[in-house]
Amino acid sequence: MVLTALRGALGFLTRLPVGGDESNWDAFRRAPVAFPLVGYVVGALAALPFLLPLPISTAAALYLVTLYLVTGVTHADGLADLGDAAVVHGDADRRLSVLKDSQTGVGGLLAFGLTLVVLALGAFGLAGAGGRVGLTAAVAIALAAEVGAKAGMATLVCLGAPAHEGLGSALVGENSPSGLLAVAVACLPVVALAPVTGGPAVVAALCCGPVVALLVRSWGRARLGGVSGDLLGATNELARAAAVHVGVVTWTLS
């Protein structure tokens, strides 16, 4: 069941050629634990540049390139849609119509642009600016950031209510808070690695995902009446960017 759900999750959340069919999708949308499992795959691939003897700027750039080659732009599109909906004036119906609009406005460009800059600067710090971040810690923080971001998506799926019918409701409408227990268990390997890698920095990066998810859920309930697929993608992007910075800062101060 978990392997079937993982295959469906990889097919939905990444561009990896895993194949899959309707049964994989059905298993995935009923198994939120698949989200952090995908985080391990994406995080491990994205962290590879930090293992290579590269200049800091090159390693940071390759980290970003790898992320978007593996995951595509679907989540980034959700962030852009959230930016457009956040700046529009009107009620929930007006904001939902903006979310469904395929054109990206100034709010969307600003939201995605700022998040990308924040992530790029965090990646630069993660790659070891000034020699403050060790090699093992950089990889562990990158992995924790991705697992945490996916755990944040799972948090929205388990705690949110659908804002409207669509792809998001196929996930949000199928799960309950009890699913977060398996999600927490799936995150334990990252916590177990913390004492021998980045210590508190790894745990701090991991926790960013659920925290961001709760903030996005609160905004969605107040402005949209629930959670949409765009909010899931936006949570992934925002949580990752925040987690990388929080991890680097925590490592530097500890």
From TrEMBL:
<dbReference type="InterPro" id="IPR003805">
    <property type="entry name" value="CobS"/>
</dbReference>
<dbReference type="Pfam" id="PF02654">
    <property type="entry name" value="CobS"/>
</dbReference>
<protein>
    <recommendedName>
        <fullName>Adenosylcobinamide-GDP ribazoletransferase</fullName>
        <ecNumber>2.7.8.26</ecNumber>
    </recommendedName>
</protein>
<keyword id="KW-0169">Cobalamin biosynthesis</keyword>
<feature type="transmembrane region" description="Helical">
    <location>
        <begin position="183"/>
        <end position="216"/>
    </location>
</feature>
<feature type="transmembrane region" description="Helical">
    <location>
        <begin position="106"/>
        <end position="127"/>
    </location>
</feature>
<dbReference type="GO" id="GO:0005886">
    <property type="term" value="C:plasma membrane"/>
</dbReference>
<keyword id="KW-0472">Membrane</keyword>
<comment type="pathway">
    <text>Cofactor biosynthesis; adenosylcobalamin biosynthesis; adenosylcobalamin from cob(II)yrinate a,c-diamide: step 7/7.</text>
</comment>
<keyword id="KW-0808">Transferase</keyword>
<keyword id="KW-1133">Transmembrane helix</keyword>
<keyword id="KW-1003">Cell membrane</keyword>
<dbReference type="GO" id="GO:0009236">
    <property type="term" value="P:cobalamin biosynthetic process"/>
</dbReference>
<feature type="transmembrane region" description="Helical">
    <location>
        <begin position="33"/>
        <end position="52"/>
    </location>
</feature>
<feature type="transmembrane region" description="Helical">
    <location>
        <begin position="139"/>
        <end position="163"/>
    </location>
</feature>
<dbReference type="GO" id="GO:0051073">
    <property type="term" value="F:adenosylcobinamide-GDP ribazoletransferase activity"/>
</dbReference>
<comment type="function">
    <text>Joins adenosylcobinamide-GDP and alpha-ribazole to generate adenosylcobalamin (Ado-cobalamin). Also synthesizes adenosylcobalamin 5'-phosphate from adenosylcobinamide-GDP and alpha-ribazole 5'-phosphate.</text>
</comment>
<dbReference type="GO" id="GO:0008818">
    <property type="term" value="F:cobalamin 5'-phosphate synthase activity"/>
</dbReference>
<keyword id="KW-0812">Transmembrane</keyword>
<keyword id="KW-0460">Magnesium</keyword>
<comment type="similarity">
    <text>Belongs to the CobS family.</text>
</comment>
